[in-house]
Predict the 3D structure of the following.
Amino acid sequence: MDFQVVVLAGGTSKNLTPLVSKEVPKPLLPVANRPVLYYVLHQLEQSNLKDLIVVVEGKDAALLVGGWISGTFVDRLHVEIAAVPEDIGSAGAIRAISHHLTAKDILVVSGDLVSDVPPGAVAANHRRHDAVVTAMLCSVPISGPSESGSSGGKDKTKKPGRYNIIGLDPGKQFLLHIATGAEIEKDTRLQKRILRAVGEMEIRSDLMDAHMYAFKRSVLQEVLDQKDTLQSLKQDVLPYLVRSQLKSEALLNRIPQAEENGNEKVSSGNNQVMVSQILANASTPSFHDLCSVSHDGSAPIRKTHKCCAYIASSSSYCVRLNSIQAFMDINRDVTGEADHLLSNTISDQNNIVGPSTKLGTKTTVGPHCMLGEGSEMGDKCQVKRSVIGRHCRIGSHVKVVNSVVMNYVTIGDGCIIQGSVICSNVQLQERVVLKDCQVGAGFVVTAGSEYKGESLARKEK
Amino acid sequence: MGAQKKGATARVSEDPEELARHPLQAILLADSFTTKFRPITLERPKVLLPLVNIPMIDYTLAWLESAGVEEVFVFCCAHSKQVIDYLESSDWPSQPNFLVTTIESHNSISAGDALRLIYERHVIHGDFVLISGDTVSNMSLTQALQEHKERRKKDANAIMTMVVKQSKPSPITQQSRLGTDELFMAINPDTKQLLCYEDKAEYSKGFISLDKTLIADNPSIVLHNDKQDCYIDICSEEVLSLFTDNFDYQHLRRHFVKGLLVDDIMGYKIFTHEIHSSYAARIDNFRSYDTISKDIIQRWTYPFVPDILCGNSAIKVERQGTYRASEVTLSRSAQIGPFTVIGQGTKIGNDTKIFHSVIGEGCTIGSNVTIEGSYIWNNVTIEDGCELRHAIVCDGVIMKSGAVLEPGVVFSFKVVVGQQFVVPAYSMVSLLQQPTQQDSDEELEYADSSSGNVELPSAKLNGDITSDLSETRHGPTSELGTGGVGYIWSIFEGGHDEEWRHSVAPITTDKLAKIMLDKDEDEELLTQDGNVLSPSGELKSDSDGNDSEDDDNEGSRDDYVSFEKEVEATFLRAVHENVKVDHAILEVNALRLSYNMASVDCAGAIFYSMMKLAVESPHSSSSELHRNAADVITTWQKLLKSFLHDIDEEIEVILKFEEICLESAKEFSPLFAQILHLLYDKDILEEDAILRWADEKEGADESDKVFVQHAEKFLQVRNELIMFIRVCIWLL
């Protein structure tokens, strides 16, 4: 499959402080004791998309991520790591690595996507329609803990609501309108031109753009070259392409494609073109084709391009890790209802309770929990709906509910942790009570202190 | 549980029961309240115009009868006598279980008026079908009615069900088929509730906008451009009372439907019912007349087709969809093409060719005549060698030999065309002169015609034709060739564009291309974000934006001017009638609220009125004027102060004063500093405000370079003023 994958892994996202730090950039944040990037790479591997460029913001972070990938996916994926400056936006990141892109189509995936939607299906859908862009849409996730509302009170919690307003054709194949960000709060303005061409448009506010796009490379590069004001793929490039689909400014000339085919093995190239033509002819002409042909049947009077949508089935899991709440939710879901994301993994034996763990007497680890390898727990501890990392030392009479505890954490006797995130190397002394808190890496919480809804982190040097 | 619920909402559940007892009623509007069929409708009401040789209203009534309606109220307004006479002479009164009652009005100018009048009569009990007399349909009402009633049971606010039909999208189809404007509807796919209805698509607007609350309330909305409104509505009784409550509702769609959709207080809902296999369409203009005639001939409207509707006169269907009445005199060499209808008693001469046309009863058509896509009504005489293409020719027209009608021509009753005369395309010809008055509002125009012109044509119809002819012969002869009778109506301004849109003639390809292009270009102007645009488009869209902004500004300025006048009037009244200051404050406040002004504007306006009063009271010298002003200010300082809450408002007062000095009452300019000082003394203005104002003015001098022509006088005066103020401040 002549597809190149660009994984936009991000860097040290501000949304996620204090969870991320220089040592743990966002792609390496643990979700059920694996870096979040693992889930994307794993899905790509499953879909046989093995030619990847992982784009990381910042050189240091790139080194860390690169080290992890080469350690984990050695021989299994062909990965290039590219470091780009911070804050250049997703479109800027693609511009920066543009010279690496050679394949006919590019799949751009956000590195924080935890999903079981096969990227291969998106790619195939893209190819089938010969689209300029195909965006994966999924149902809006239900945010906040499903069980108790205790941790839902955080101000970081997004209102369960609308992320995008999306217009689809009756066949739900083409993307006709998309509104993101601030536009959602305004009245929706729809182009009559597109509506006229398609006749019927369904407006959905219960779908979300999951930030997995397949682009036609030539068009993507051209658009990025010409419109240097476009900052973000999600907010600028995609809406731009959707908006201009019946009045394409991107030169969709077939020349570069033909050249590529000429350069490559001619036979296979031609074959592919043939196949796509056959597929295109088999289906009834889409409104794009009809619209591009002038009514007297002469040559096309205007250029059109297709913007497609791949709608993930409502049962599939698809969430982006872009807030602390999402981090909690994903950790909960991956160990809970979406545990098939884990069971598919072929790597080391990640049972719910890892190997070489020591549990004290009368210590219970409830369902949907995870205990990493080498962790030790004292007597009479309770763990409910929580993820505990590797090599943690947990004293006696400790309660961990609805929380995420990363690696090498020391928790003293009698601590109660609820709805909180404890980063690596944190030390909680005796009788600490934390509720809805985030504790940054390496922080020491003194004995007996109580915090509620706070974010604790070491001061940056 | 369910039964209990029903009991709880007694009013709702009672209605269906009541309905069971009441016969199904319908309101048939035998007046379209438009002028699209002029000049024909000056002489005969639209519903009586023959559609494939049968008056339109018969199709509507026949359908209502077949759909199970038991009582029809025919509302007639324009030419009401003709409608009533026709109905009385027809078979309808003798039909069992089908009661046709006419309601006559002479002063209704819209569907809204009609429904208000019907409401007053208290004849409608329960659900009813609302339809206009120019609708052709063969749909079954059962399902739509049932859906409507079930919705009503659950939700008392679901008061109307609109029938819609699938059509192809693309403006070309809509324009070329029914000649109607494009229609955008937003419908909730699950409940079928209508959420948005936009029919008068302004071509300048390339976007349709959906209110954000709609999206918040409905997770999924389907926006349609491929539906056609059939103008068949199933309404609940409330609809009539709503028209009475909202006396400004005129048009069924433009006012009523949109009004309900916008109004979220009452929460009334409109639903849609889509028909798939059956037929429903309304004759809105000549183009839809053409299209629907063809549909009838091609039997889409079965069983409402000519051979079944007029059973006794024995029209027979022949090959290629040709209908021929029993007594037709047809030359052997005449060619009657496909999809043609020929009425009773018509004679057709040698070598005449007729395709895709409808010929009425008692016509005489000579030899070598070509008729294509035309509608020839009754008793028309067409002499040898005439050519007609896509024309409508009304009763009694005489075409002398060799006359040619180009596409889109409409001949009203009894027009005579001279020999060899070529009538240009899209001409409207009538014996009546075009009404000179051209009101832009369609509805009002029609009202004029109905009240003013009704009598004339009916007299003509009944009276002897010869006298008419002799009268008119002298005048319009030149317009229609030698021996021709009739006036060619000039196409009025703005209508020029419309003539081909609504004409019977097919739209030429270049026109179609133009439609598409127009729409595209319009959109280009408005494609959002500048960077998407070609430079030319960008420019235009910018200027567009500015224009509208200017308009807005103008609007608000107008508002302000009238507000100022009101305040002045209030103030003068307060002065002359010795109204208490508190009351004056109240009144000004009320004005402020009703004009939606800020208290800044109030302060300005009050001060303006005060100064004006001072100027207008008699004075001979500037010192007297000063005294006048001082008096006024002292008396009314409380009023003024009550609107001076902060420094901005005080600055506004100074600016206003400056304006007065420079523009309206130059007598004040020498007194500027003194009065300012006075205002300061009275604690009306604070020192800060004066200083700030002075600062602002100093800065503005450089930037105000636009007023170069003003500069001489303006700057001089202003500098003087500023000098004064400096002195003034220094004095302070």
Remarks:
- The two ends of chain A are 48 Å apart (CA to CA).
